[in-house]
Each structure stands twice: as C-alpha cells, then as structure tokens.
Amino acid sequence: MSNPLIEARSIVRVFDNLKVLNGTEFSLSEGEFVAVTGKSGVGKSTLLGVLGTLDPSFSGDLIINGVNTAEVTSQRLAELRREFMGFIFQDFHLLPNLSALDNALLPAVFSGTDTRKVRDDAAAILSRLGLRNDNTPTRFLSRGERQRVASARALVNNPRVLMADEPTASLDEESEETLFDLLDSLRREKGFAIIAVLHSKKILSRADRILELKEGILHENHA
Amino acid sequence: MKTMRKAISLWNRGHWKDYVFSQGMLLIASLLLVFFISIGLGVGNILQRFLSSDLPEEQVRVTPLGVQAGFFQTERGGTEITENLLDSLLALPQVDRIDPQVYAHVPAYLRGLLGGRNYYTDITLEGVSDAFVPDSMLEYIDWNYTLSDSSVKPLPIILSEDLLILYNAGFAESNGLMGLTPEGVIGLEVRVNVGSSSIASLQAPPINLRAEIVGTSRNTALFALAVPIEFVEEVNALFLPDDRHTYSALMVTAHEAEDVPEIVRYAEKMGLSAETRRGIAQKAEILVGVVTAALGALAAAILFSAVASAIHTLVADLKNRSYALGVLVALGTKRERLVYIFAFQIFFMSLISTVSGGLLGCALSYIVSTTLLNLLPVLKMAVNSLAVFPAGWLSAGLGLVLSVSTVSAWFFFRKILATPVTELLRR
After folding, report:
1. What's the complex ipTM?
2. Domain spans, chain B
3. Would you call B337 and A54 a contact, using CB atoms and an 8 Å cutoff?
4. Cβ-nearest to A106 among B10, B326, B335
5. What is the per-residue pLDDT across B359-416, written as a single tens digit (0 to 9) for each?
6. CA distances from B386 to B39, B49, B360, B382 (A)
7. pTM of the predicted structure, to 2 decimals
C-alpha cells in the first residue's frame, strides 16, 4: 500500500484554552475524495488550515508527501503548498482587482515560474469551468463565477491534493452539482485527491469517505 | 525579471493611486531637502564672503570700542587711541611695527557723477598709511599726498567694498540708479570738499580737491573713505589745531603670527577692540554656523514630517493589503520572495520619487536664486548664484531619504509577513 499523501497524528489545536482539535487523526490517500462534516464552529476550517500548513500553531505530527512539517522551514512549507496542494477557500480569497485569469495565475507568477505554459492551462481550466477569459476584475463577477475562479486557481498548478472549505456554500443546487461534476471529471483525469468541508448531502454521496468532526476528533461516518 | 514585473503589475493593479500620496510626500521631502541644502550652503557662502577679511595673519587691527559710524561719532567715547597708548603698544616685545590710522575731524563732502547722475554725499575721511594698502595696489598707485599736491595729482581714495554693497542695496536701489562694482568705480574722478558738509562747516574756508577712487578694500572702516594719512594729519592740524590728537585705528604688525594673541590680550586689557584674521574668521564661522544650523533644523523638521508621512502612508497601504498578502502566502508564495519583490518595488518607486524630487529641488533653488539675485543686486556683488549644488551633500541627503523610506517600509512589510497566514486572511 502506498504512503498516504497526508497523514495527521494526534493533532491538537487550542484557541484560548479551548481544544478545537483534540488528538485528531487523519489520512488521505492518492486520488481519494474525503468529505469532512460537522456542526458550525466545530473546527472544520481549523482542521483544513492545519492540514493545509496554513496554521502552524498545533501539536502532533503532520506528514505531507512523506515530509514532517515540523522539520522543515516555512519556505519549504510554502513550496509544498504551491506544488502539492490547491486551495478553494470558503471566502474564495480572490484579489478583486484582477481578472479571472490573473487570479488563476497568481501562484505561478509570484513563485517566479514561467507563466506561458501555465497561462494556457489556466485558460483551458477557466474555459472548462464556463468562465470567460477576459479582463473583467473578479469584483464584478457573481458569487458562483468567483467560486469557479477560485476553483480554477486551485487546479492550475496540477495539485495532488485539492483542499476545499465549503466550496459550494452559497451556490444553488444546480451550480453545486455543476461544480462537482467538473471537479470529479478533472479528478478522474488528473488523479488528485480531494479533502472538502461539505454540508450538501448530494455532494457528500460522491465522497469516498465521510468524516465527521465532533469534539475535536474525526469520526468515520458510514451513513 | 519578467515574472517579477508581472508580479508587481498584478499586485498594484487598481492600487496605483494609493501610492500617489506617499510618493508625492517623498518627492516633496526630497525637493525640500535639496532646496534647503542648496540655498543653506549658498547663504553660508554669502555670509562667509561678507564677513571675511584680507587682514594678514600677523596683523592686529586695534580700534576703540563701540560702533564707528564715521565723522559724526568717530572714535570718541571709551578709551581713545592716544600717542601714549600707541607708544605703550609699540613697546611690547611682540610688536614689530604700528601703522596708525586717523579720522579727519573735519566735515567733508563728495560730489561727482556716479552711474551717469550727479552724486553728493557727506563723507568721513580716514587717513591710512601705505602699510594698509595692499602691495598689489601700491604697484600702480601713489599713496603719498599732501595739500601741496592738489594742483598736480588727485587725492587717492580707497572705498570700502561693504559701502559699495550698502550703496547698491540702499541708495542705488531706492533711486533707480545702476549698481556699482569695484571695477566700475576704480578710476572714477570726484570732487572732495574739506571743511564743510551739508550740516556742518568750520570757520576756515573749505578746500576743494580733485580726487580719484583708486581701489576698494574689505578692511576700511565702513563709513569712511581711506586716504593717505599725512593728508588727514595736515587737514586736522589746519582746521582744528587745538584738537587732541588721537588715532582711529592702529594696524599692529607682530614679529610672528604666534605673537598676535599676546597683542590682542594687551589691547583688550587697555579697553580697546582688537581684530585678527582668526577672530574675524571665528565670528564668521559662528554666524554661518548659526544660520546653517537654523536652516538645517528647519530642513530636518520638514524632512522628518514628510518622510514620516510618506512612510506612514506606505505602511498604511501595506496594512490595508495584508489580506492580499495572506492570499499570496496561502497560495504558496515564499515570504522571502514577497519581501524581495516588494522591497524592489518600494525601492524603485522611492528612487523615482526621490530623484524627481531632487531634480525639482535643484530647479526650485535655481529659480529662487535667480529671482533673489535679480531683486537684490547687492547679492550679485558677493556671489554669482545663491544656490550651490554640492553633489556629495545632495547625494547623501537623497540617499538618506531613500534609505529611510525603503528600510522603514521593508521593516513593516516583514513585520506584516511574520503574521500567521490564518490571521492575515481574516479581513
């Protein structure tokens, strides 16, 4: 059996004496789609922040692609995020003055990568997500369109893990389905794994595993 | 480089106007800095020029205390320089020789054509020996003159350069007359009347003489015209035979320049004023220092507030965009690369603002200098330009502005980047 892409052991994250993650265990395999559910405020976004190396203030072991994150520099963690992961944030975190394409190119541009090839890939992904490749700043786009731009940005670097924090939060059912149809098809094509915080039962049914975060611990949900 | 340009372009899209204010402040700071350095040093040059002296190093000019403003005040009041006092000074072992100067205690006036117009003024004559006249001048002028020479040669006069400056700044200016330069007055023939003036006359009939301005000097008394001493002695004896004989000044020559302090101490002990080249230089230095310090303090205050404002705006902008920085870091951009990109941007933008401000400052100094020199011809006597542009000082000043703003922005930028990404992403 191959090594997991992400393995978290005994993760504890405390906010003001409140243990949000309390010895959380987690692993993600190649190509796997894991959904995380749980009540509001239970710590799902915190878990994603820790697994995505955005939040280093935790105890426990986090091993990503065989690299123990406690043993590497913040520069190496940044490299891991850029080369290994793609993020779809709950609030999208797009730069509002930039176009969809420029937002999608951000990670490549700021890492000093030659953007010519990435530009073609980004344009292709945007097109597949049904977005116009023009210079309209994303602040003028609808929420659904911004969601798709955020997805395109997450996928443009060919990540091995896509992390999505409630990516369909404000989408209607049809848009939700469309987005995950696209993500599923891209996943089959490119073979990346997904870890997503989700609520929609329809989308949850697409996941290989469903984990529920309760009192700081992830529980396998077979329902 | 290409990706860095692209990164800077993306980062700034829609935000260029945010930089206008901060860079504008930086530009103004640079402009004012250059302006104050340029004009400040120019003013210093003028002061040095006005306050300098060509007194030889081994000479001391001894005068009575108080202001000597010509015939009406002369040397009366306080210790007067009498024959006895002169003898006691001469007896000092440090003194090599003494060349006395004498005021004519006789009213006098001068009449002539100056700047193409009739000119009349009451004057005070001060007799000086040829030791007072620079050797270079003695090569072509005859400094011996008595009343018996009046029919064969003109009375030689040496004008104070400071008097010329005052003439240009005051009389000529207010009467719409041409300003005078030393070159313009040398060789000028005038009539000097001794024995009466516009407000005083003596019983003996006045004497009217042909006179010629033969030179200018910075060492003559401001309100007196220097003429040969034997002529003044003769006039004093002729018109006021009972007047007590005193000297207006003594040019004391020491054996060595090292003897000068002892002579100064003695003269001051006697209640007299003693001027030396070093003393004049020190006074000038103090005054120039005070003026320069005042201008420097003003420049520093303006510079500080402008740079502080520019930095504040830059930092405020960075703080406002800490969310965007969080996005970039979350997407895997290395903090070091962000620091590199934005330090380059801040440096480059600040460089443009600083250099532009510096160039505008030079232009402003030039315009102010030209305008002031046109308005005040008196300044033209002293300097060709009121603005000086010392490359070293200006570069150092602009370098300071550039480094302070860049380093401060860089420091705050690093501080923002040290914040955890999850906090940066909270809007």
Report:
1. 0.89
2. 2-52+283-424, 59-277
3. no
4. B10
5. 999 999 999 988 888 877 666 666 778 888 888 888 888 888 788 888 888 888 888 8
6. 6, 12, 16, 9
7. 0.62
